[in-house]
Write a structure and sequence with these properties.
It is built from 13 helices and nine strands. It has about 425 residues and is an alpha+beta fold. Strand 8 and strand 9 form a beta hairpin. Its EC number is 2.7.13.3.
Length: about 425
């Protein structure tokens, strides 16, 4: 439904813009500004279907031109058939555009310029050719040069508009990144303060451990019985102090994350861009050769970007850890698509995989298949439990996992559209 609303909106704007037009030949053939808006919308709204939108735009242009003609002249008998060829122009423009745009980079404005010139010139030639069969319009061969010049001018206007918007957007993004950096510095300074309490607690914990072990030895050897009570009291006092200061740390971090991170939302494509660059650096830092692939469906805007970033980052890092350093043709794939009213994410790798017993406990806190047998170090195993918490508790979604030992692992995540998206 949302796509149809956008398509009708674009078609209506194109129809309004088409009222700015000039006649180049002695007929109802007119060159309008409508196609300029049509291509600009196609460039920025990738989800629009060019052919459907083109045909609808042509119909809207036709209806609006008839209405204007009727209000001006009192009847439309002489132009009903002639004006219908507007639909033909937009239909063929969108068909040519759709056929050519898939042959190159849709985001390359210079490439799109050539597509626009060909589409504009081709659609105009077809319209003029049809007009010669129903009225006294000159043949397309006589006005071909003029039509080609018009196609270049209109396409150049679109090229200029798109480049202007592109650089304006870059300036806005630069300003937004600077503001984010300032907030990050402020956030870091606050977290540094909380680190002080954590470090102080580490000293307390060391003291408690030492006193506890000393008390254990005295009890075990039945020595210095009169000091047991004081030592136990000191241990209890230190534990209480640790608990109190730990509460301060938790409260402080909660205030930071709840207040300072109340940032405006982000487009999903921007989240993916940040993740891709960050994860590539992580992979390079681990000296692994892994092909990281993102395949995203429809773009959307969300204020849950911190949750989404954390969820995907944990799953990608989990996949990176599951791939041995010397593995050849290693690959991690992050795919996204819109499945009716839900966003569907698949994060898969071709790493070592997980056996059936491991799959039963994979979301349990502390469970990990990553053990360094040289150092004895075990991964904390919190990443996947955090993912499950974010997906199911914070985003009202579902997460599942499939894996074949030796062939890799895939995580499947469904999140309701109305939870993740915002206008």
């Amino acid at each position: 439904m949302k796509h149809y609303k956008k398509m009708f909106f674009v078609s209506f704007i194109v129809a309004l813009a088409s009222q700015v037009n000039i006649g180049l030949i002695n007929s109802d053939f007119r060159v309008s500004a409508g196609i300029i808006f049509f291509v600009a919308f196609l460039f920025y709204y990738h989800e629009l279907q060019p052919v459907q939108t083109g045909i609808l735009s042509g119909i809207m242009v036709y209806i609006l031109r008839l209405m204007v003609y009727y209000l001006t002249n009192g009847d439309v008998k002489g132009v009903i058939i002639s004006y219908q060829l507007e639909i033909l122009f937009y239909a063929f423009y969108s068909i040519i555009y759709c056929l050519l745009i898939n042959q190159g980079n849709k985001n390359n404005i210079n490439f799109i310029f050539f597509i626009m010139v060909i589409s504009d010139f081709g659609a105009n030639l077809i319209e003029v050719l049809v007009r010669t069969t129903i009225d006294t319009s000159p043949s397309p061969w006589k006005v071909g040069t003029t039509l080609f010049f018009v196609s270049i001018v209109r396409s150049a206007i679109v090229w200029l508009v798109l480049n202007t918007l592109k650089y304006y957007r870059m300036l806005l993004m630069k300003e937004e990144h600077e503001n984010r950096y300032k907030r990050l510095l402020w956030l870091t300074s606050q977290l540094k303060t909380e680190m002080y309490w954590i470090e102080k607690n580490m000293d307390h914990i060391e003291t408690v451990m030492s006193e506890s072990y000393e008390l254990f030895e005295k009890i075990n050897l039945n020595e210095d019985r009169e000091s047991w009570a004081n030592k136990a009291l000191n241990i209890a006092r230190d534990v209480h102090e640790i608990k109190k200061e730990n509460g301060l740390v938790i409260r402080g971090i909660k205030e930071i994350t709840e207040n300072e991170l109340k940032d405006k939302g982000m487009d999903f494509k921007d989240i993916v861009s940040i993740l891709f660059e960050t994860m590539k650096r992580e992979i390079k830092g681990l000296d692994k050769d892994i092909n990281l692939e993102f395949i995203i469906g429809e773009n959307f805007y969300t204020s849950k970007h911190y949750y989404l970033m954390s969820m995907l980052r944990n799953l990608i890092m989990n996949a990176v850890d599951a791939i041995p350093k010397m593995q050849k043709e290693a690959k991690i794939s992050v795919r996204h698509k819109l499945d009716r009213d839900q966003h569907y994410f698949i994060i898969s790798d071709n790493g070592i995989g997980i056996d059936e017993e491991g799959l039963k406990y994979i979301f349990s806190p502390g469970f990990s298949t990553k053990i360094n047998y040289n150092t004895g170090e075990v991964n904390r195993g919190l990443g996947l439990s955090i993912v499950q918490y974010i997906v199911e508790e914070q985003l009202n979604g579902k997460v599942s996992v499939t894996s074949i030992l030796g062939n890799g692992t895939s995580f499947h995540i469904y999140i309701p559209r109305n939870v993740l998206e915002e206008d």
